[in-house]
C-alpha cells in the first residue's frame, strides 16, 4: 500500500511542480527569426551581453604596456613576466590568463578599448558602479542605460542571469517590463500543494489572480510586487520547456560565470526574442595579495566568454552577438604595500563578437602622466555606450545618455 | 521606487508620539506593523496581547525585551562555543537564525542585523568562523548602545581588520581600503570627505594587526608622522580618525537616514528637515542608538501610511517571520540553506555596502524561492522543516470553528496579513476554502488527512498574496 506521505512527496517532487503561465506573454512567443532585419532603429535582431567585473578590475595588469619601463617600476611585485604574455602588438600584451581571449583576438573577434573612464572619477565602488550602470553622472541615479534603451526598442526583452546572492542591477531598471533575474531554469517554477488537477488549477488561479488584481489605489511598493509576480509567473512555463533540450557545441569551463553564460546561450538558442543579457562576476577589489586572485578571475572571464562565443558562433549567432565587459574603475598605477592595488580610474574594456572592429582602439593611458596616481582616461565610457546603442541596438543614444557622445570606433 | 514628497511632512508632527484616535485606531494592522519592524513578526498570541496592551506598553516591551534574556544568552553562548571550532560556516548561519527565532529580545536582534548590514563583513574573504562569530557578538553587545564605542570597536575587530585589509597596511605602504569605507559607508557618506582625507587617514591605521586572535598595535609598522584629516593635523592614530569622523556633523544625519530606511520607509526619501530632529537627538545624546530607535518606533510617522508596508521584507524577515507566525520550532540548518536561495546569506553580504534591500530583494527567482519556501514550510512534508510549523495545529489550538469557512480564512488573514487584504482577494480565498471540500483526494487519506491538508493549502495561499512580501 502506498503510504500517504510517500504519495504526497512523490506528487510534490514530480507532477506537483506546477509550472505557471496559461498564456505565454507576447515576448515569449515571438522568435528572433520572425524579427525582420531592416538595418534601422529598433528592428535589429542583434544581441548584447554585458559582463560586469565587480570590484574594480586592475586594467594595468589586464592590458599591459610591457615595453614601458614605468610599468615594471610601478609594479615591483605585481609586474607580469613579459615572455609568456599574449601580445596584441609590439607594445601591448594581455595577461597570460586571457589566452583564450587573445586567441579570439587573432580571429578578429575582439576589440580592446583602452583608457575608458569619465571626468572627475569617483573612487567609491558604489557611486562609480551606479554611474557606469546608469550611463550618467547625475547626483541621483534611478534608471539604467540598458533599461532606458529597452524602453525605446519595441517588444524588447532581456534577462539578468544572476548568481545566488545577487540582486537585479540598476543597469536594467527603467525597462518597460521588469527584466527577469534567473539563477537556474530548473528552479524557475512555483509549487502548489498536491491535489487533483482541478485543485491545482484553483490554487494557481488564486496565486496568479492576486498578482493581477487591480485596486483603485495600489501603493507603489505593492504594485511593484505584483508586477514582479506577473512577469515571473508568465515566463515560467516556457522556460521549463526549453530547459530540457540544450546541448552546448563546445564544452564550457566549470565556473559560475560560465554557467550563467551557458544559460544565456540556452535562452538565445531557444529564440525567445530576448536581446539583452546581463551577467556579473565579483571579486576584483584586489587591495592585497592580488597576483593569484586576479589571474584566476581573468581566467574565469576569458574562458567563459570564449566558450560562450564559440558555442553561439557554431550555432550561427556569431554575427548577432556583441559581448561587452566593464568594471566600475581600474586600479592605482603604483601597487600598494600589500602586494595589491587601491582604487583607480581609467581602464580598458573588451568587446567580443562577429562584427566588432578588431584590434585596439585608442592609446594606452600614459604612465608618465598620472592624475592623483591614477591613469587618465581619453575615452568616455558613454562613447562606447553610444556606439552600442546607435550602431548595435539601433537606439538614439541621446535619449538614453542625456547628451551627445561621439560613438567610439568599436564596430565594423 | 523612491518617491519624493511633494507635500512636505511636518517634522514636529512626524516625530511626536502616536496616540490612537478614531482616524488611526490601534488595531491588528498596526500591532502587526510594530512587531514586523521592531522584531521579526508576531505570533497569534503576541498580536492578541498587543491589542489589549496598546501601543505604548507594546513598544515598551519590545524596547526592553522579554524575560529570560540572561538564560537565553548563556544557552546561545554554549552553542556558539561549539560552532566556532568548526571550519564550516553553515552552523554559524543556522545559529544566528536560531537566535532570531527564539530570542526574548527581538529588537536587539533586529538591530544586530542592521549593524551586520551596516558594517557588512563577509566570511567569503575573512574565512574564519570564530572571527565572524565574535564580530556578530560585538554587534549584538552594542546593538542598542552608543555608536561611538561601536565604531571604535569595529575598527579593531579581527574580522573587519581582515575584511578591509587593515592588517596589510604598513608604514610607508598604507592600504586605503578601511579608511575609505570608514568614511563612505560607516560614518559619513559620499560628499563629506575628500580623497586627500582618505589617503591621510589610511596612514593612521598602519600597524594595526592581529596577534593571537586579538587586535595588536604594532608600533614598528605604524606611521607616526603628521597627517591632516578634516583639517586637523597631528600624528593621528586610528582612534583619532574614528573620533574625528564622529565629530563631523554629517555623521549623525548619515546614521539617522539609514535607520529611517530600516524602520520607517524605503520608498520615502526624507528631506533634511525631517531627518534633522533625529540627527540632533543623536548628537545631543552622544549617539544613543536606543533613544533614536525609540523616537522612531513611537512616532506619528511610524504609524502613518508613509511607513505602513513601505518596505519589502528581507529574506531573513520573510523566513524568520513565517516560522514565528506559525509558532514553529524548527531546526535552522534547513532555513539557513533556504535563505541563500532567497538572496540573503547571512555573514556573506555581497559587498561592504551590504545588501541594497528594498525592491532589490525581489526579482523573479527570489520571489519564486520565497513562495516555494512558504510551500515547503506549511506543507509539513518537507524534511528540512518537519511537522512543527503546522497551520492545521494552530487552527486546533486556537479553537477556530472549522465548519465556518469564512472564520478559517479570517484566522489566516489575521495571522499573516493582520486583516489587511482587499475584499476581492478574501472572497476568492473563501471560495477556494468551500470548493476544496468537494475536491477528490486519494482514497487512502483519512478524513483527518484531508482536513489538515485543506488547512495547510489555505495557509499557503494566504502567504502567497503579494501583500505578504511587504514589511
Q: Count up the helices of chain B.
A: 23
Read across the widest sheet of chain B, the strand sequence of neighbours is: 1-2
Helix % of chain A is 25-40%
Beta-strand percentage range of chain A: 5-15%
Structural class of chain B: mainly alpha
How many β-strand stretches of chain A?
A: 11
What distance lies between the first and last C-alpha atoms of chain B, to the nearest angstrom?
A: 15 Å
Measured between the Cα atoms of the first and last residue of chain A, the distance is 69 Å
Q: Look up the CATH topology of chain A.
A: Alkaline Phosphatase, subunit A
Based on CA atoms alone, the radius of gyration of chain B comes out at 24 Å
What would CATH call the class of chain A?
Alpha Beta
Percent strand of chain B equals under 5%
Largest interface: A-B, 75 and 80 residues
Parts with pLDDT < 50 across at least 5 consecutive residues of chain A: 1-43
Q: What about the largest sheet of chain B?
A: 2 strands, antiparallel
Pattern of helices and strands of chain A: HHEEHEHEHHEEHHHEHEEEEHH
Please, could you describe this protein's structure?
The complex is a heterodimer of chains A (412) and B (471). Chain A has 412 residues and is α/β, with parallel strands linked by helices. Chain A has one domain: Alkaline Phosphatase, subunit A (3-Layer(aba) Sandwich), CATH 3.40.720. Chain A is built from 12 helices and 11 strands. In chain A, the strands form 2 sheets. In chain A, strands 1, 4, 5, 6, 7, 8, 9, 10 and 11 form a 9-stranded mixed beta sheet that branches. The longest helix of chain A is centred in the C-terminal third of the chain and has 25 residues. The radius of gyration of chain A is 23 Å and the shape is globular. By secondary structure, chain B is mainly alpha-helical. Chain B has a domain of 155 residues. In chain B, the strands form 2 sheets. A two-stranded antiparallel sheet of chain B has the order 1-2. Chain B has a two-stranded antiparallel sheet with strand order 3-4. In chain B, a hairpin with a 2-residue loop joins strand 1 and strand 2. The N terminus of chain B is likely disordered.
Amino acid at each position: 500500500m502506498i503510504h500517504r506521505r510517500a504519495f504526497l512527496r512523490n506528487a510534490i517532487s514530480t507532477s506537483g511542480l506546477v509550472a505557471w503561465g496559461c498564456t505565454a506573454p507576447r515576448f515569449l512567443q515571438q522568435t528572433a527569426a520572425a524579427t525582420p532585419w531592416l538595418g534601422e532603429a529598433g528592428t535589429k535582431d542583434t544581441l548584447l551581453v554585458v559582463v560586469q567585473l565587480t570590484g574594480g578590475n586592475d586594467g594595468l595588469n589586464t592590458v599591459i604596456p610591457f615595453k614601458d619601463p614605468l610599468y615594471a617600476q610601478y609594479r615591483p611585485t605585481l609586474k607580469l613576466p613579459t615572455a609568456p604574455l599574449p601580445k596584441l602588438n609590439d607594445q601591448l600584451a594581455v595577461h597570460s590568463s586571457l589566452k583564450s581571449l587573445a586567441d579570439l583576438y587573432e580571429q578578429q573577434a575582439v576589440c580592446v578599448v583602452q583608457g575608458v573612464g569619465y571626468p572627475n572619477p569617483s573612487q567609491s565602488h558604489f557611486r562609480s558602479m551606479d554611474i557606469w550602470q546608469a550611463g550618467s553622472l547625475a547626483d541621483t541615479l534611478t534608471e539604467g542605460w540598458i533599461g532606458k534603451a529597452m524602453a525605446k526598442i519595441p517588444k524588447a526583452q532581456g534577462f539578468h542571469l544572476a548568481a545566488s546572492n545577487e540582486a537585479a542591477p540598476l543597469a536594467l531598471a527603467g525597462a518597460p517590463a521588469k527584466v527577469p533575474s534567473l539563477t537556474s531554469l530548473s528552479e524557475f517554477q512555483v509549487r502548489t500543494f498536491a491535489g487533483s488537477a482541478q485543485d491545482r488549477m484553483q490554487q494557481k488561479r488564486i496565486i496568479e489572480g492576486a498578482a493581477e488584481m487591480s485596486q483603485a489605489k495600489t501603493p507603489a511598493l505593492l504594485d511593484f510586487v505584483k508586477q514582479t509576480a506577473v512577469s515571473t509567473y508568465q515566463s515560467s512555463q516556457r522556460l521549463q520547456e526549453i530547459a530540457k533540450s540544450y546541448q552546448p557545441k563546445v564544452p564550457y569551463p566549470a565556473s559560475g560565470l560560465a554557467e550563467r553564460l551557458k544559460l544565456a546561450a540556452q535562452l538565445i538558442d531557444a529564440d525567445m526574442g530576448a536581446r539583452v543579457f546581463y551577467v556579473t562576476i565579483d571579486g576584483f577589489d584586489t587591495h592585497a595579495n592580488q597576483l593569484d586572485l586576479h589571474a584566476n578571475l581573468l581566467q574565469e572571464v576569458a574562458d567563459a566568454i570564449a566558450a560562450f562565443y564559440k558555442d553561439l558562433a557554431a550555432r550561427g549567432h556569431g554575427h548577432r552577438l556583441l559581448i561587452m565587459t566593464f568594471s566600475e574603475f581600474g586600479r592605482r598605477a603604483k601597487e600598494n604595500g600589500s602586494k595589491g592595488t587601491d582604487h583607480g580610474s581609467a581602464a580598458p574594456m573588451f568587446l567580443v563578437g562577429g562584427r566588432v572592429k578588431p584590434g585596439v582602439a585608442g592609446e594606452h593611458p600614459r604612465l608618465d602622466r598620472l592624475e592623483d596616481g591614477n591613469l587618465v582616461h581619453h575615452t568616455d565610457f558613454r562613447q562606447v555606450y553610444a556606439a552600442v546603442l546607435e550602431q548595435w541596438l539601433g537606439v538614439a543614444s541621446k535619449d538614453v545618455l542625456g547628451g551627445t557622445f561621439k560613438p567610439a570606433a568599436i564596430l565594423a | 521606487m523612491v518617491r519624493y514628497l511633494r507635500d512636505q511632512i511636518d517634522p514636529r508632527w512626524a516625530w511626536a508620539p502616536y496616540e490612537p484616535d478614531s482616524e488611526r485606531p490601534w488595531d491588528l494592522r498596526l500591532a502587526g506593523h510594530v512587531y514586523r519592524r521592531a522584531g521579526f513578526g508576531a505570533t497569534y498570541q503576541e498580536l492578541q496581547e498587543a491589542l489589549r496592551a496598546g501601543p505604548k506598553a507594546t513598544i515598551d516591551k519590545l524596547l526592553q525585551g522579554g524575560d529570560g534574556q540572561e538564560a537565553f544568552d548563556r544557552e546561545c553562548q554554549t552553542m556558539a562555543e561549539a560552532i566556532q571550532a568548526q571550519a564550516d560556516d553553515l552552523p554559524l548561519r543556522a545559529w544566528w537564525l536560531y537566535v532570531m527565532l527564539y530570542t526574548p529580545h527581538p529588537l536587539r536582534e533586529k538591530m544586530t542585523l542592521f549593524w551586520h548590514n551596516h558594517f557588512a563583513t563577509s566570511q567569503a574573504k575573512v574565512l574564519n568562523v570564530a572571527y565572524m562569530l565574535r564580530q556578530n557578538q560585538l554587534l549584538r553587545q552594542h546593538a542598542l548602545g552608543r555608536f561611538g564605542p561601536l565604531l571604535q570597536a569595529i575598527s579593531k575587530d579581527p574580522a573587519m581588520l581582515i575584511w578591509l585589509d587593515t592588517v596589510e597596511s604598513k608604514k610607508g605602504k598604507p592600504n586605503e581600503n578601511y579608511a575609505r569605507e570608514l568614511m563612505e559607508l560607516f560614518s559619513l557618506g559620499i560628499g563629506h570627505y575628500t580623497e586627500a582625507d582618505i589617503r591621510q587617514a589610511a596612514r593612521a591605521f598602519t600597524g594595526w594587526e592581529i596577534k593571537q586572535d586579538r587586535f595588536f598595535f604594532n608600533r614598528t609598522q605604524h606611521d607616526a608622522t603628521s597627517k591632516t584629516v578634516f583639517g586637523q593635523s597631528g600624528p593621528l592614530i586610528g582612534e583619532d580618525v574614528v573620533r574625528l569622523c564622529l565629530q563631523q556633523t554629517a555623521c549623525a544625519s548619515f546614521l539617522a537616514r539609514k535607520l529611517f530606511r530600516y524602520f520607517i520607509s524605503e520608498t520615502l526619501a526624507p528631506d533634511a528637515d525631517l531627518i534633522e530632529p533625529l540627527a540632533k537627538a543623536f548628537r545631543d545624546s552622544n549617539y544613543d542608538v536606543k533613544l533614536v530607535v525609540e523616537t522612531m518606533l513611537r512616532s506619528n510617522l511610524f504609524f502613518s501610511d508613509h511607513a505602513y508596508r513601505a518596505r519589502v521584507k528581507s529574506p531573513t524577515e520573510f523566513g524568520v517571520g513565517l516560522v514565528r507566525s506559525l509558532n514553529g520550532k524548527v531546526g535552522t540548518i534547513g532555513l539557513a540553506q533556504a535563505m541563500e536561495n532567497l538572496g540573503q546569506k547571512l555573514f556573506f553580504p555581497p559587498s561592504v555596502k551590504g545588501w541594497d534591500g528594498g525592491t532589490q530583494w525581489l526579482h523573479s527567482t527570489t520571489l519564486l524561492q520565497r513562495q516555494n519556501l512558504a510551500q515547503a514550510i506549511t506543507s509539513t512534508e518537507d524534511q528540512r522543516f518537519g511537522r512543527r510549523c503546522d497551520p492545521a495545529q494552530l487552527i486546533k489550538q486556537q479553537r477556530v470553528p472549522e465548519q465556518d469557512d469564512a472564520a478559517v480564512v479570517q484566522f489566516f488573514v489575521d495571522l499573516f496579513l493582520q486583516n489587511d487584504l482587499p475584499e476581492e482577494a478574501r472572497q476568492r480565498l473563501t471560495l477556494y476554502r468551500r470548493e476544496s471540500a468537494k475536491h477528490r483526494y486519494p482514497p487512502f487519506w483519512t478524513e483527518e488527512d484531508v482536513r489538515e491538508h485543506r488547512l495547510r493549502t489555505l495557509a499557503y495561499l494566504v502567504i502567497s498574496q503579494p501583500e505578504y512580501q511587504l514589511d
